[in-house]
Write a structure and sequence with these properties.
The complex is a heterotrimer of chains A (270), B (103) and C (152). Chain A is built from eleven helices and seven strands. By secondary structure, chain A is mainly alpha-helical. Chain A is globular and about 55 Å long. Chain A starts with a helix and ends with a strand. Chain B is mainly β. A four-stranded antiparallel beta sheet of chain B has the order 4-3-6-7, with no helix packed on it. The two termini of chain B are 27 Å apart. Chain C is α+β, with helices and mostly antiparallel strands. Chain C folds into two domains: 29 residues, no CATH class; 115 residues, Immunoglobulin-like. Chain C is built from three helices and nine strands. In chain C, strands 1, 3, 5, 6, 8 and 9 form a six-stranded mixed beta sheet that branches. Classes of the chains: A mainly alpha (270), B mainly beta (103), C alpha+beta (152). Chains in contact: A-B, A-C, B-C. At the B-C interface, strand 3, strand 4 and strand 5 of B face strand 6 and strand 7 of C. Chain B: InterPro entries: Ig-like_fold, Ig_E-set, SoxZ, SoxZ_dom. Chain B: It comes from Azospirillum cavernae. Chain B: Pfam families: SoxZ.
């Protein structure tokens, strides 16, 4: 059996498992997993990344030897508090709808004179991306407990939302997969992982409000871009370019659907 | 040197609760890298904590403690403003001490 | 008195002198990492190295942890002793290559409730060992380690 077939068999096994357990009762195992997740909340190592992200934000760097402290994340230059809860949004200076990471690249370029290319091309575990993940931890932490308030007032924001919705339902790749395959119905799970139903406000909030997150499995801080990139990988889609419109569109769709829910960032996950 | 710890200490009803997050790889020595070479063990093996200058906890750890370790414990006594000091030493001899005030 | 005993006495005197001079620090000031206990390959060896022999099972030793860990890389454990004069709390994982995860020496001011996070390679019994009033007590709990789905 070739590698792809093995992969398909594994996938079929997983989806069969998902279907058979999908509507199982809230059993003892599920309660125990809840207890496990609860226990993790108490000390989230994401705090360590928030601290290093704050330092990165405040330390002069790049050819212009400037910090990011004058970066406009949407609420005015230098305003970090609450900014993440209102992203993605349209920015007049770039005339683009940007998520946090895309906006950070803009600021690194304009304020610090850095070339965004190495940040875009580096793998998610390489040093340039470690900076992005730490910055995402810090900035999202400054929106903890803030209500998600993403606007679709600008035509480009509305267009980005519509594109995200299409992207979510777009089916393709070697497994003929879509985001909606896993996240397009209520009450499913893979093994013991509940899958949020993203088109609902509750499901979108479950996803959007808890990323960026510290992943205990690998001991890594994951930004939303990393999370989305991995969704593409799991679907065996071509890897999206870091901060490309396809990824921002998905974020816009999720964030706008989650509007009104409370940010719990940075989260902690298995 | 290591990265800074996050220490939280709060007093309630005469008991001080101390919570510490430490940034450390806690490499077990059991894993292999992409080339099949064993990644050497690298972990915090001693942790000590002082409250108001007095030793209140002394721990020995092995590589089974999770990456970016979290430790929480409670001590009788303590008051707001008291200094909590935590020190770790790893098996390579690296060490770090951080402090926080009880709130 | 044999030569050997004589030597032993001299060594003890020598150590006492060092301690008096401040070269050997008192136990609470500096711990010597217990290599033998941490490198023990069986539970019996680990318990022996800790001086615990066969600890008595005690309801006063409690393990607060979920029955199932969603990921073995991080398993939160709270170890509690209700025994008076608890001096030490240790956490051991039966099926880990390095069984002894942690050992905490407490002072009379420390409340014997310690929370830590451990790695578990597979489903296993977790043992909490308590030394109180010079005697050893233990409790054990099985924690199942699951494989995850796609990561939430």
């Amino acid at each position: 059996m070739d590698r792809a077939s093995v992969g398909i068999m594994a996938f079929l096994a997983v989806s069969a498992a998902a279907v058979t357990v999908a509507y199982a009762q809230k059993d003892a195992a599920q309660d125990s997993i809840e207890a496990y997740r609860e226990a993790l909340q108490d000390g989230n190592p994401a705090e360590l990344y928030e601290a290093s992200g704050e330092e990165l934000w405040k330390t002069p760097a790049g050819p212009k030897a400037a910090s990011l402290e004058r970066c406009d994340l949407g609420l005015g230059p230098g305003v970090v508090k609450g900014a993440y809860a209102q992203l993605p949004r349209h920015f007049a200076d770039t005339d683009r709808v940007q998520d946090l990471e895309s906006r950070l690249l803009t600021c690194m370029q304009t304020l610090q004179g850095k070339d965004p290319k190495p940040y875009i091309e580096a793998s998610f575990t390489a040093p340039p991306k470690e900076e992005m993940n730490a910055l995402a931890a810090y900035i999202s932490g400054q929106s903890k407990d803030a209500p998600i308030a993403v606007t679709l007032a600008h035509p480009k924001e509305q267009a980005m939302y519509e594109l995200g919705k299409r992207m979510f339902n777009y089916q393709g790749g070697p497994y003929d997969f879509a985001c909606a395959t896993c996240h397009g119905q209520e009450g499913t799970r893979i093994r013991l992982q509940e899958l949020p139903y993203i088109p609902s406000a509750k499901g979108a909030a479950a996803g959007w409000s808890s990323w960026p997150a510290y992943r205990v499995s690998a001991g890594q801080m994951w930004s939303m871009q990393w999370r989305l990139n991995d969704c593409f990988r799991q679907q065996r889609f071509p890897e999206p370019v870091y901060t490309s419109d396809a990824t921002i569109a998905l974020s816009m769709y999720m964030a706008a659907t989650a509007n009104g829910a409370t940010m719990k960032t940075p989260g902690i996950k298995r | 040197m290591g990265s800074p710890m996050k220490i939280r200490a709060s007093v309630k009803d005469g008991v001080t609760e101390i919570k510490v997050l430490m940034g450390h790889e806690m490499e077990t020595g059991q894993r292999k890298d992409a080339n099949g070479a064993v990644i050497p063990a690298w972990f915090i093996n001693e942790v000590t904590a002082k409250l108001d200058g007095k030793m209140v906890m002394q721990a020995q750890w092995g590589p089974s403690i999770s990456k970016n370790p979290y430790l929480a414990f409670k001590v009788k006594g303590g008051k707001a403003g008291d200094k909590v000091s935590v020190t770790w030493v790893d098996n390579k001899g690296d060490t770090r001490t951080d402090e926080a005030a009880v709130t | 008195m044999t030569q050997r005993l004589m030597e032993r006495r001299q060594i003890l005197t020598f150590l006492g002198t060092l301690a008096a001079a401040g070269f050997v620090l008192p136990r609470m000031a500096f711990a010597n990492w217990d290599k033998v206990a941490f490198e023990a390959k069986t539970m019996d060896e680990a318990l022996k190295a800790l001086g615990a022999g066969t600890p008595a099972t005690s309801g006063d030793v409690q393990i607060v942890a979920s029955d199932i860990a969603e990921n073995g890389a991080v398993v939160p454990i709270q170890a509690i002793s209700k025994l008076p004069n608890t001096e030490r709390i240790a956490i051991l994982v039966d099926k880990n290559p390095s069984m002894l995860a942690a050992s905490f020496d407490l002072t009379p001011e420390t409340i014997p409730e310690v929370t830590a996070r451990i790695k578990m390679g597979q489903t296993s019994n977790v043992v909490v060992l308590v030394k109180a009033d010079g005697k050893f007590y233990a409790a054990s709990k099985e924690i199942k380690v699951t494989l995850g789905g796609c990561g939430g």
